[in-house]
Every structure is written in C-alpha cells, then in structure tokens.
Amino acid sequence: MIKPDFEKTGGLVPVIAQDYKTGDVLMLAYMNEEAWKKTLETGKVHYYSRSRNKIWLKGESSGHVQLVKEIFLDCDLDTVLIKVDQLGGAACHKGYRSCFYRRLDGNELKIVGEKIFDPEVVYGKKA
Amino acid sequence: MIKPDFEKTGGLVPVIAQDYKTGDVLMLAYMNEEAWKKTLETGKVHYYSRSRNKIWLKGESSGHVQLVKEIFLDCDLDTVLIKVDQLGGAACHKGYRSCFYRRLDGNELKIVGEKIFDPEVVYGKKA
C-alpha cells in the first residue's frame, strides 16, 4: 500500500486539507498510519489527535466531515495534501471556514476569515 | 511581536507555502523563531532545516526565493500559512512547481505536477 513514510517521521505526518473547489487552505492536522488507512477506506478524513491521543473522524462532533477528493504526497513522502469537500462549509472549531482566519497585519492579527457557525451552538460550550 | 506559539510546539512550527496567485499549495517546511523573524524582516521566506539544523533562506541555492505576500496564523497559533510569490515558478527541489506533484491513484503515485526545471542543471548534482 502506498503510504507516507511514518517510520521516518516518528509515526505522525502533517496533513494539509485544502478545499477542492476554492483552493482555500482549511487546516493542518496530523495522521498516524491508522488514520491514513481509515481515511482511504472510508473516503472521510481521519486525523490523529495529539492532545487526545486518539484517531479522530473530522466532523464527528460538528457534522463537518471532510470528503476526500484527491490525495497528494510530497517529494519526501512526509507530508500529505488532501483536497476535500468540506461539508457544512467550515473546517475550524472556532466556526470559521478556515483555521487560517487571521492575517498578520503589522503587529496585529486581523480577522479576515468568514465565520460560518457559532461554536457554542454547534458544540454546546465555548470552543 | 505577534508570533506562533513556539513554546507549545517545542520550538518548530509547520509552515504551508501557497502560491498567492493560483492558490496551489507549494510545500510544507518548518520555522523556528529566528526563521520567523528573518522572514518578517526580509520579506523572503526563511525555514529551519531539521536535517541540516540551520536556518535556510528558501532559494539560496536555486534562486527560487519565496517573496512574502500575506501571512496567516491558525486558530491554535501552531501553524503558519504564507501566501508567496514563488520566483522561478518552482518550489520543489525535484524541479516541480509544487512538492505535491504526485497524486494517489489507486495503489500508485501518479506524477501530475508540472516540471519547471532540471535539478541536475540547477543544483549541479542529482537531487
């Protein structure tokens, strides 16, 4: 099976999720080999949560699942790029379309991203 | 100074370089705080090479410098997205426009990226 070089990276590789229609970079998270396999098997992006130490189906709480459209590996086989159909239109747990919703503007971070949902409504608590 | 949370990440953060015109994801590499500062000071993307253990001006050998257009930080302040003007049109040391030049196609990796230069000519040896 084609896979990233998990041995080289110590078990986890960074994964960039990109909107397959707009080209927006939505988020970066990590996969271990099991998350990679589950992603291929199901067509839904699974990550490995480093804080919770477990496999995580993106959207399992919010419903904002990422459907796999295309998968790319980089030249060193240690980074993955996945073009996804982002259900619900938002990847970020803060309710924004992209996790990269703040732009550096001089010495400030300016919110430039589009807010799609209220995290308190979706998750039932402050995110 | 606004900066990624280098303490949380143990000193290095992943950085996604995206073509500011086409939206193509070009590469992923890492920055430490010094690389972050040099990038802001010079307007040219600097990374930290984990294999060479040193700061690296992207394009220092090839001339394929990345000029900073916009910088974004993610919701957790542990990943950077930089929109760049990729001089020379190629980010990958293999000569491709993007490091993500291979797409998973069944159980194969299919080259779908555009080759811009011959690494042997640019670097004077096999890359």
From TrEMBL, chains A, B:
GO cellular component: cytoplasm
Pathway assigned to this chain's UniProt record: Amino-acid biosynthesis; L-histidine biosynthesis; L-histidine from 5-phospho-alpha-D-ribose 1-diphosphate: step 3/9; Amino-acid biosynthesis; L-histidine biosynthesis; L-histidine from 5-phospho-alpha-D-ribose 1-diphosphate: step 2/9
Domain Phosphoribosyl-AMP cyclohydrolase: 27-101
Keywords from the UniProt entry: Amino-acid biosynthesis, Cytoplasm, Histidine biosynthesis, Hydrolase, Magnesium, Metal-binding, Zinc
Superkingdom of the organism of origin: Bacteria
UniProt subunit comment: Homodimer.
Protein name: Phosphoribosyl-AMP cyclohydrolase
The species this protein was found in: Thermodesulfatator indicus (strain DSM 15286 / JCM 11887 / CIR29812)
Taxonomy of the source species: Bacteria, Pseudomonadati, Thermodesulfobacteriota, Thermodesulfobacteria, Thermodesulfobacteriales
Gene (UniProt): hisI
